[in-house]
Specification:
This protein is an alpha/beta fold. Helix content is 40%, strand content 18%. The chain has one domain: Rossmann fold.
């Protein structure tokens, strides 16, 4: 069970999946999960990506098997979380990688790519929120519910629409239990700190090829709304999948993973052609 000492208050848990041919040089993908989740949620992606890439799946500060954060942790911010992930990749001696993020992991990934353009080969974000809504009453009600009934109860209460109408009941149960294992102190501090985050100023500074994945009938992230901000990323493209989930990476992991893999392959092939042309 690998852990990395990131800061004095954080032991970060992570997993590395690498099933590529060992004699062939291959690149790395860093996968960033969403709120009340862990690196375990990429179960449906790993069989596709890990055959070609070294896949790094960390548990974000406070979540999964990483050190829980106190409710009054004073430094919750996207930049702090990005610094954590950057320190992990430094310890693993991985300078450049493909970055993938879902939901708030996608929000983090957008700013990550803008802050560290030299480190990101490609970026894939799946249904991220680029401008959070400041809704104090809503988050106060959530906090009161979790303090009374626990994080798992909150997860069940907010599950509608998350995984879509076609997701199996047993899968919904698995997700509720996984999210419910999040430390209450972490969850309360995190949702109160990230609710109003706005990464729209970062979009124009993302220089790497970027794939944005959305769902046609999502109640939270319509394709039209996603397209309004996606077009601000210079080298980006939008993929709209059929379905009604707003946690797209979880609802249809195989489709998302295959699309991401195809995107990376295409970008890499185009870059190789360009290098060959430049040398000639």
């Amino acid at each position: 069970m690998p852990n990395a000492k990131i800061t004095p208050d954080l032991e970060m848990h992570y997993e590395v999946d690498d099933f590529a041919d060992p004699w062939r040089p291959h690149e790395t993908s860093l996968l960033l999960h969403g709120n009340a989740e862990s690196g375990a949620v990429w179960y449906g992606w790993v069989p596709y990506l890990a055959r070609e890439f070294r896949v790094v799946r960390p548990d974000m500060r406070g979540f999964g098997a990483s050190t829980p954060m106190p409710r009054d942790y004073p430094s919750w911010s996207l930049d702090q979380v990005i610094d954590d992930f950057t320190a992990l990749m430094d310890q693993l001696r991985i300078d450049r990688f493909h970055l993938v993020g879902a939901k708030v992991g996608g929000t983090i990934a957008l700013r990550f790519a803008a802050r560290h353009p030299q480190r990101i080969a490609t970026l894939t974000v799946i249904a991220p929120q680029v401008r959070g809504k400041a809704e104090p009453e809503r988050y106060r009600a959530w906090a009161e519910h979790m303090e009374t009934y626990g994080v798992e109860s909150w997860a069940r209460m907010t599950m509608k629409g998350r995984l879509g109408s076609g997701f199996p009941p047993a899968g919904v149960e698995w997700w509720a239990r996984l999210m419910g294992r999040t430390a209450l102190s972490t969850q309360l501090g995190f949702i109160s700190s990230v609710s109003g985050v706005d990464v729209t100023p970062d979009l124009a500074n993302i220089l790497c090829p970027t794939l944005v994945i959305a769902m046609q009938d999502s109640s939270l992230h319509s394709v039209k709304k996603v397209g309004e901000w996606q077009c601000k990323i210079p080298r980006s493209e939008l993929l709209a999948l059929q379905g009604d989930a707003y946690h797209v990476a979880a609802a249809v992991p195989e489709r998302c993973a295959r699309a991401t893999l195809d995107f990376i392959r295409r970008v890499s092939a185009e870059a190789a052609i360009q290098r060959s042309y430049d040398r000639s």
